C-alpha cells in the first residue's frame, strides 16, 4: 500500500456571508496524480489556497496533516518550505525578467546579496532541461509562449525541491500539443516520486492521467473515485447532482418575433492577432425571451458579449447585428446604447460602477441625455430617476447619496441594473448577473429579469451556474472555445446535457 | 418618464423626507470637508491679521492678494478638471510664460508691416494668445488621449519645450512695457458709473471714507442673486419631497457666505473698487462651478476619473473628454500668462516658472484626489487663496523665503493627510 502524503480533514472556510468550504476531506497518496473536479465556484481553488497558506492557519477550521505531521501554514513561504508548491491559473511570472531571473525570484542564487549569475544560469538550465525546455535562460519570459511559460513555472517549483505540486487548471490556455507535453511531464514526475494535485475541467485529460479523482460541489466533498471507477458519466453526475428547489421565481414566458440577431460573429484576441477567440457565432433572441449562454469560464462568453457591445474587446471583429430585422451599427458603446443594447458586466467593480461616487450619479451615467437638455442636468429629474430605480430594483441603502463602493455585492449589482434599465434598452445582456451575491438578492435579480422579459425586452443571460440558467431562461446556447456547440430549449435541457455538449466538443478538439 | 415618476415619488414623499432629513450634526459631518476648508481659510486670515498687526485686512492689501493670486486661480480651475479626470499637467507654468512672451512680442516686440499691424492690437493679440494656448493644450491632450502617453510625461516634455520657446522668442531679454489697454487686465478697476459715495468726509483728524458705489451695487446684487438661487433650489427640493439640509444650517451657511461677500465688497469698495481681473475670475469660477455641477460634460469627467473602464462601457467617449480637458487647460494657462505679464508690465524669460506647482498644490489642498474622480471648483479656489494668503501674510511678517517654502510644503502635506484620515474614518 502506498503512503498517504497529505490529509485534509474537515476543512471549513467562511467568507463574510458565504460558506465557501464546509467539512471538506481530501487524502492524497504519495506519488500519485490526484485530480480535483467541480463546477466554477465549487470551492476547488479555495481549498488549494487553504492548503498552501494563502489563507493562513486559523482563518479556517479543520486539520492539515502532511507527511504525518499536522501543519499550520501561515504564509505561502511556510508551505513552500515543506515542498508544497502551487501554480495558479494566472501565471505569476514577471514578463520583463528573464527565465532564469523568474525561476530564482525570491530565492536568488546570491552571496551576501550579490547575485551569482553563473550559478543562476547553470541552475536554470538544469531545471529547464528537467521540464523539457531548451530555451536560453536569458530569454525574457514575455518572449516565450504561454505553454512554455507554464513549464517555466513548473521549473520554478522544482527549484524549491517540490514534493507536492498543485496545478490549478494548467491546460486551460494551452494548445493541444502543449497540454499533452505538460501531462507527460506530470507522469514523469510521478515516476520520480513527486505527487501532483491537478485541478481541471477537461475530463478527457483527467481520465487519461489521474490515479484518483475527488469531486467537490458547493464547498463539500462528494466522493473520491479510484482509477477503475472513473467514467465521464459518473463524474458529471457527481459534479452537477444537486437538487433544484424553488430558488427561482415562476416564469410564464410570452415570446414574440425575433428582436435581436447576430450573424457570423468572429473576434480575434486583442494582442495576438492570430488567436481567434470567437468563431462564427450565430444567435437570436425573441421578444420577451430570456436566452442563456452556458459554458465554462474562459469559453469566450464574456469576450463575445463585450465584442458585441461597442467592440469593447478584441480586434478584427466581423459579423452582423440585426435589431428587428434591420442591420445596426454597434461599433462604439455609444452607438450600441443608442440602438437599444445594454451590457451589464460580470465584473461590476472594474467595469460596472464608479465606486467612489454615489448611487444617483451611477444610475444616470449611461443615459445622461435622459436627465438633461442642452447638456445641462436637471438635478430634480435626476433625483426622481435615482429614487424611482432605487425603489424598482429594491436597493437597500440609506439614500441615493450612498457611495456605491460601500454597498454589498447584491446592492451594487442592482445599481448596475438600474443604470441599464434607465437607459431603456431593447436588448439586455447580463453577464454573470448574480456572481458573488447571496441567495436573497439573487431571487430579486431573477424577478427583475422576469419583469424585463414580460415588458417585451430581449434578455441574454451569461452564467457559469448551470442551475441558474436552467431556472430562469427559455432557451440555451452552449458555448465552448468560442463556438456554439449546442442549442436547446431550456425545457429539454439538463445539466448533464449541457456538460455533455461541452465535453463532447472538448473531445473533438483534442 | 415624468408621467411614470409622479405617482411613485408622491407616495414615497413622506418616507423620503424622513430618510433624507439629516440631522444638523450629520449634515455638518457629511460636508465637513467643504466647511472645514472655508473655516481653515478664515482662521488663517485671522491668524495673519493678528500677526501682521492688522495689515492683512487693509483694503489695499486685500486687493493685492486678489491681484497676486488671480493667475493661480484661473489655472487652478483648469487643473481641477485635469486632476479630476485622473491626469496632471506640469506644463502650465511654462505655457503661461510662453504665452506672456508671445503677447509681448505681438504687441511690442515684433514690428509688423502696416497690413499686419492689426495683430499688435491688444484685443486681437489677446485672442490669438488664447487660441494658441488652446492649441498647445489640444496638442498635448491629443497625445495623452489618443496615443495613451502618460500625461506626466507629455506635459513634462511640454514644460521643457515651452520654457525653451519663451527664451527663444524673447531672445533672452525682458520685453515691455505693454500698451495701456492691455495693462488694464491686471492693473485696472471697473469704472464707477454711479460716482463715489462719501460716508465720512475728510476733516481734521478724521480718515475720509469714500466707497466705490458700483462695486457696492454689484456686491449687493450678487448676494441677493445667490440667496435667491439657494432659496429657489431649496424650495424646489421641498416641493418634490427631498430634504437635504436642516433649516438652521441652511440659514447659518447662507448668512455666513453673504456676510463674507458683503465684507469683501465693502473692503474693495473702500479702496478702488472691483479689479477687472476679479470680474474675469468671478465669471470663470461661476462657469466652472456650473459645468462641474450641472452639466453632462462635467459629470462625464468625474465618471471617467472615478472609473475609466466603467465610464467607457457606459457610452462615454473617454478619449474625447480627456482631449477637451487639456485644450481648456491650455486656454486658461494662456489667459493666466497674459494676466501675469500685464501685472509685471513686461514679459520675462523666467515668467511662469514653477507656477504649475502652486496651481497643483492649490487643487490638492482643495480636496481633489490624486487618483482622480474627486474634487470641487470651490475647493480649488479656496485652496489657492489659502496658499495666497499664506504667501502674503508671511511676506508682510518678514519671514524668510526659505522658511516660507517649508511652511507651505507642510500645509500641503497636512491638508492631504487630513483628507485621507477623514476618508478612512468615514469609510
Features:
A: 510 residues, Rossmann fold, 17 helices, globular, B: mainly alpha, ABC transporter involved in vitamin B12 uptake, BtuC, two-stranded antiparallel ribbon, disordered N terminus
Protein model, in words:
The two termini of chain A are 34 Å apart. Chain A has three domains: 4-240, 3-Layer(aba) Sandwich (Rossmann fold); 254-340 and 425-510, 3-Layer(aba) Sandwich (Rossmann fold), CATH 3.40.50.300; 350-422, no CATH class. The radius of gyration of chain A is 25 Å and the shape is globular. Chain A is built from 17 helices and 24 strands. Chain A is of the alpha/beta class and 510 residues long. Chain B has 427 residues and is mainly α. Chain B has a domain at 51-182 and 284-426: ABC transporter involved in vitamin B12 uptake, BtuC (Orthogonal Bundle). Helix content of chain B is 73%, strand content 2%. Chain B has a two-stranded antiparallel ribbon with strand order 1-2. In chain B, a hairpin with an 8-residue loop joins strand 1 (197-200) and strand 2 (209-211). The longest helix of chain B has 27 residues, at 213-239. Chain B is globular and about 65 Å long. Mean pLDDT of chain B is 88; it is low at 1-21.
